[in-house]
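Exercise 7. Given the encoded structure of a 635-residue chain, write a plausible sequence.
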């Protein structure tokens, strides 16, 4: 049964989509805002012989129903083969269908488009939210237009002053950065303003940084907010084109939980499925993807330096791909090594910079680095971090290679990230457990992006207690959120006397069953009270907070979730004890001893309970999926 759900889930992931609504309120800033979307999140069109255009990307599945229908027999046959332990067959079938949905996406060896395919025209008069709203233009960049809509309807900007930059996601970052420069100047002329603000997400962040490296002296930009920027690339191209995917199943399922917006724990249902199944499925896709994407400049721009040369030597010919190689060599050997210097020079020239990162997840395509699923923390922020499952020893307060102020604490509550080594320690925020580019699905991530892009409130990580440098994800599927009453989120000091627990589910009520600490002898006595969504509970504690500075501890909140089945769940939070005492730790890496979860203490009973709950989960998730927006969309 789990394999059935795994196969169905693989197909559903292909067609995931979110909705969009437009509204507008009074503006609070009149500086033009330009949103730069991520990899393959822009619209592409094919120019026909008669001069008209046909949209080729992002594919509109509703309009391509005939193509999907024609491929259903092959999909069904490959799903049967997947049951027979051949997931590669399903991967190939899905790629064959996608090839028919996007038949003109191939490029020449020099990186130019094989067919007359280009992005939508970057005319500011047509790429602003006011025009899009009133013209009835169909929106494909769901996440980015959703964010653009949010800042308009919340009154942070007028719709005619919020722009979305269109570009060909197949092109290298150098080519797109040149186009961005033209668009920035066009927006300035159109709006009559002297400066613009940029919001670059993922590959859009790399494009924005490339633009700054080349053209920061133009003086056209007053602020840049980078959301999970791919400054240092990733292993994406290497793993996918070479068919060496090693799938981090649980973390990817979390993305689906984010997008569906329900309180259902889809990940728990599939926790016992062998991730190798999905790895093999994606490796089945890889052969088709390689044929399509091997000459895409963006694939090489997004590849980390350590994988770039091997990927280049395998797929690119020195003569036929000379221009493609030249431009990406500039990216990897001139621009990527200079990110730290470029960002500092921008700050010195008066350009405000903010970097938003996510952490605590495996690299989905393989690797032990602390990441946001697609990008390693070090490649996004420049900060040193331990691999997952390890942490810095107690007493470690940072290498302080960039921030030398001993009163500043830049080590994460989990003691896995040393932000004192980041490109910009005072201007980099981290959300633990949040997925790559999923900020718009979380209350904190959306608020942070909105404040950073549209206001001047967040000058640095100390500007607001509501936006500290390190927080845990508040995605509703996590159920509860906890922090102490006085200290910054993720930390505990001798000034704290209560733990504040919030029910962050969207629709389910909960009751706290127990609160237990590890690494400190504290006893908590939660009130017997049912919490509605958004409601908080103050839990007093007795005991002594450990002595010493930079001591890693943890608190586990166990609760009952009142849904169709009233299940027991739990979540563990990292806390670091701070006393501002000086330490002499050298940053030794040690084991992460707080990763275990509570159990009955009887292994056989735990296995029996887990088996029963898996069956119950199957029924529950099926019911929840039928109730979800995703299911209604598919219908």
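Solution.
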């Amino acid at each position: 049964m789990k394999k059935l759900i795994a196969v169905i889930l693989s197909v559903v992931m292909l067609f995931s989509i979110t909705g969009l609504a437009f509204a507008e309120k009074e503006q609070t800033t009149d500086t033009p805002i330009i949103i730069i979307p991520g990899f393959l999140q822009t619209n592409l069109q094919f120019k026909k012989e008669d001069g008209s255009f046909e949209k080729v990307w992002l594919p509109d599945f509703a309009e391509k129903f005939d193509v999907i229908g024609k491929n259903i027999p092959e999909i069904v046959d490959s799903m049967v083969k997947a049951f027979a332990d051949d997931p590669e067959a399903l991967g190939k079938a899905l790629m064959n269908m996608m090839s028919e949905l996007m038949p003109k996406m191939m490029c020449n060896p020099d990186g130019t488009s094989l067919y007359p395919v280009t992005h939508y025209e970057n005319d500011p008069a047509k790429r602003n939210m006011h025009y899009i709203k009133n013209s009835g233009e169909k929106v494909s960049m769901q996440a980015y237009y959703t964010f653009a809509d949010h800042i308009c309807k919340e009154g942070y900007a007028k719709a005619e002053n919020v722009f979305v930059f269109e570009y060909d996601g197949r092109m290298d970052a150098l080519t797109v950065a040149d186009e961005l420069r033209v668009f920035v100047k066009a927006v300035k002329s159109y709006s009559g303003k002297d400066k613009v603000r940029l919001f670059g997400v993922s590959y859009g962040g790399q494009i924005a940084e490339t633009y700054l490296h080349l053209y920061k002296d133009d003086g056209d930009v007053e602020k840049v907010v980078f959301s999970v920027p791919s400054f240092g690339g990733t292993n994406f191209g290497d793993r996918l084109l070479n068919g060496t995917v090693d799938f981090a199943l649980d973390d990817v399922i979390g993305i689906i939980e984010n997008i569906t917006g329900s309180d259902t724990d889809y990940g728990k249902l599939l926790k016992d499925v062998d991730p190798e199944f999905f790895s093999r499925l994606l490796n089945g896709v890889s052969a088709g993807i390689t044929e399509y994407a091997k000459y895409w400049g963006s694939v090489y721009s997004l590849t980390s330096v350590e994988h770039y040369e091997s990927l280049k030597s395998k797929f690119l010919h020195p003569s036929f791909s000379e221009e493609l190689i030249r431009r990406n060599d500039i990216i990897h050997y001139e621009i990527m090594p200079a990110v730290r210097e470029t960002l500092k020079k921008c700050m010195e020239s008066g350009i405000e910079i903010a970097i938003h990162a996510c952490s605590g997840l495996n690299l989905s395509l393989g690797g032990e680095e602390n990441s946001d699923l697609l990008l390693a923390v070090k490649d996004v922020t420049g900060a040193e971090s331990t691999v997952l499952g390890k942490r810095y020893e107690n007493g470690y307060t940072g290498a302080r290679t960039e921030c030398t102020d001993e009163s500043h604490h830049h080590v994460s509550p989990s003691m896995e990230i040393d932000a004192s080594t980041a490109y910009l320690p005072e201007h980099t925020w981290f959300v633990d457990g949040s997925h790559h580019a999923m900020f718009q699905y979380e209350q904190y991530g959306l608020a942070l992006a909105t404040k950073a892009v549209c206001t001047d409130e967040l000058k640095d990580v100390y500007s607001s207690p509501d936006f500290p440098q390190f927080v845990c994800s508040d995605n509703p599927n996590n159920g509860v959120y906890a922090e102490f009453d006085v200290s910054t989120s993720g930390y505990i000091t001798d000034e704290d006397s209560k733990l504040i627990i919030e029910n962050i589910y969207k629709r389910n009520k909960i009751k706290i069953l127990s609160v237990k600490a590890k690494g400190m002898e504290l006893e908590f006595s939660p009130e017997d009270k049912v919490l509605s969504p958004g409601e908080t509970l103050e839990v007093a504690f007795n005991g002594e907070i450990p002595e010493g500075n930079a001591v890693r501890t943890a608190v586990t909140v166990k609760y009952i979730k009142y849904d169709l089945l009233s299940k027991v769940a739990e979540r563990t939070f990292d806390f670091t004890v701070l006393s501002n005492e000086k330490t002499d730790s050298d940053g030794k890496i040690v084991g992460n001893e707080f990763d275990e979860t509570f159990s009955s203490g009887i292994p056989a009973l735990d296995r029996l309970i887990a088996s029963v709950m898996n069956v119950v989960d199957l029924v529950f998730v099926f019911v929840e999926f039928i109730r979800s927006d995703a299911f209604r969309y598919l219908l």
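Remark. The radius of gyration is 25 Å. Students should compare their own answers with the one above.
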